[in-house]
Write a structure and sequence with these properties.
The protein has about 250 residues and is of the alpha/beta class. About 40% of the residues lie in helices and about 20% in strands. The protein has two domains: about 1-105 and about 210-245, D-Maltodextrin-Binding Protein, domain 2 (3-Layer(aba) Sandwich); about 105-205, 3-Layer(aba) Sandwich (D-Maltodextrin-Binding Protein, domain 2), CATH 3.40.190.10. The strands form two sheets. A five-stranded mixed β-sheet has the order 2-1-3-10-4, sandwiched between helices. It is globular, with a radius of gyration of 21 Å.
Length: about 250
């Protein structure tokens, strides 16, 4: 009897030791372009900390509006610098917690391996539909518009444009055939399920403003150990290696 009781006590101690009392869940708003690498970062983070990550994907502009209206996110990984700074100024983000975690790259991509021949593809307009994300809510959509404006193509290409609310929807238009070409993030094209397929043009960075992507700890997450740990994890070597592998530049 005593041996059974001792064995039970040892098992209980082992269970408590293996499951830290501080394990929490963190709710993260992630800009659609960053979802592929963040999936991998979340796996590494959960394994290292035992915290649990819940992810919501969408456009930075829509997330900004949702957070202002009380959405319960702890951390916001935006595709721009402006919205996290606005949230900090408005008291919805923790002061001085904001920093640039990645600098994005814009590409023109098509699942057709013979379609894209660089800038000439845009100028020739030999495609039925061109997908871009909404420039008002998605920073990559804004960069795409700036690139086409600089190439003096924005007005003439309007009849061929189909607009997604975010980069996830924009990529969906291309993959489904509703658009045969589109502007997306390099990180999406480097997703293992797509990498190596189709044709692409790496849009020169001088055609648009830098896509500096900032993260911020939101006030709803200021007392969350999981949220604070994730912010710290984002600047560590494991996260940086994943971010670089998906084609982002590191500041």
């Amino acid at each position: 009897m005593k041996q059974r009781l001792l064995a039970w006590c040892l098992l209980l101690i082992a269970t408590i030791t293996a499951t830290p009392a501080f394990a929490e869940q963190v709710l993260v708003a992630v800009a659609a372009n960053f979802v592929p690498p963040f999936r991998e970062i979340a796996i590494e983070f959960e394994a290292a900390t035992n915290h649990n990550v819940r992810v919501a994907a969408g456009s930075s502009g829509n997330f900004y509006s949702q957070i202002k209206n009380g959405a319960p996110f702890d951390v916001f990984l935006s595709a721009d610098m402006e919205r996290p700074k606005l949230l900090e100024d408005e008291g919805l983000g923790v002061k001085d917690s904001c920093f640039t975690y990645a600098i994005g790259r814009l590409v023109l991509w098509s699942p057709n391996p013979d379609l894209i021949k660089g800038e000439e593809t845009l100028r020739s307009k030999k495609f039925k539909r061109l997908a871009i994300a909404n420039p008002k809510t998605a920073p990559y959509g804004l960069a795409a518009m700036q690139a086409m404006q600089k190439l003096e193509l924005w007005e003439s290409i309007q009849p061929k444009i189909v607009m997604g609310e975010n980069l996830g929807q924009t990529m969906g238009f291309i993959e489904s055939g509703n658009a045969d070409v589109g502007f997306v993030a390099l990180s999406q094209v480097l997703d293992p399920k797509i990498k190596g397929k189709g044709s692409l043009w790496d849009v020169p960075s001088n055609l648009h403003e830098p896509i500096k992507q900032d993260v911020i700890l939101l006030t709803k997450g200021k007392d969350s150990q999981a949220a604070k740990a994730l912010i710290e994890f984002m600047v560590g070597p494991q996260a940086k290696a994943i971010i670089a592998r998906y084609g982002y530049e590191l500041k």
